[in-house]
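Submission sheet (multi-component)
Chains listed below:
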Amino acid sequence: MALIKLENITLEFPVQASKSDRRQSSSKESHIGGQLSLGPSGQMVVRALDQLSLTLGPGDRLALLGHNGAGKTTLLRVMAKLYPPTHGRVTVQGRVAPLLNLGFGLDMDSTGYDNIFIRGLYLGMSKADLKKKADAIAEFSELGDFLDLPMRTYSSGMRARLAFAISTHVQTDILLLDEVVATGDARFLKKANEQLENFARDSKLLVLASHSNKVLRDLCNKAVILEHGRIKAFGPIDEIIDAYAVSMGVEAKDK
Amino acid sequence: MRTNGSNMLDVLQEVRDGWRWRELWMTLGWRDVQTRHRRSRIGPFWNTLSLSLFVICIGSLYGGIMSHPMSDYIPHLVTGYMVWVFLNALVLEGKDAFVGNATAIREIPVPRTVYIYKLLWKNLIILSFNSLVYIAVVVLYGVSPFPNVILILPALMLVFLNGIWVALLLGLINVRYRDVGQMIPNAMRLAFFVTPILWYPDSVTGIRTIFVDFNPFYYFIELLRAPLLGQAPTTLVWAVAIGITAVGWGITVPIYAHWRRRIAFWV
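Outcome: structure written.
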């Protein structure tokens, strides 16, 4: 049973050693980034998430929309229980597989095949399980003989394929993806889409942050717009993407 | 942020949970040993080789300076130095337990003790490669370590218990204050010379005995060295080592409990 329940989450980062002598403050409000303020001891504090509440259940495939620094990745990290919130409560039921950073758990000097094991173990699979699934993962990634070569010979799209294949083959209830699938080519995107649809059909939960409306439309059924760490809108994917496009002043059509 | 009983229990739970991930840290630890010597022909046996070279050179030089018979000095040197390499690595790698795994800490919610068990396991493997030199020396000089050598097992357990708190504490401090990380290698280099490894603890007299009596490294070296040479560590050595373990954990648990939630932001 997959469930993510966020209640009134606020997350503040203390920023160390960043006294800027550029200027004191800007008069114009920027739409980039979270909210900056001064903490009790005078250091800068970035409020990345601000009193955010959200409940997701089985079968939900949520798209995270928002400008650079709106809090998408931070929100994914809170869902993965990597960042404990400053205030508020996080309830996550089910096993979580995050895929936030493509480089992670992948050793550039090891072969792709070895990396299936390293990343798989990190995601909580046993070696015995991985041995059974390694072929399926290899096949899904379509990397063929490249799996016997060191990872440093891979392009970023190939790395994405492998990382994605591993993360979607582990036994998990919740999958968190950050701007990852977008690196793949059209053919891989189609495959990823099928895989994620299966994933959702099994009453699992998916959260995906991306700037590609096409990817989001294909993979998700719900969406939120984040702005300065707050939820600006939440609803069905198409409605939200259109609203987002209007607010950004750009055309929504499959940008 | 408060430090209360439940936070401290969380620390102990993390220590226990890390154990469940042993397939992960055993794999990573073994890979660390291998990757250090990637593409070299003899691989991890470089550890063995470099220890033997050290023992041959330093042994023949200092054995002469200290006018001790080789049959006595070489076993003392090889056991002491081998144990020092091990303890030194636990401290130096312990301080990097979190900084060195920053990408993983920001990516995957595994218990953070996994990174500590990984480094303990890695150094146990290196210790076993080094112990080949020890075995050769024991055979060569006819030192019989039996039956006291069995005491190496409880002694190692005690060292590992200390390795965990040292890594939790230094790792945490180093995440926040990186200067500490720069300081520790210097302190350890000094500790090597003031600890009876190249010399004998009974060759210091007068005020200089403080380098032995008040040196925590002396007790841990002795704890492992004595069984390897077939002696039983004295009651004092056991008592001090157990005392340091208790005090270390007593200090580390509340501090780590208080700050552990911040680690992901600081790395």
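Remark: Residues 5-266 of chain B form one domain.
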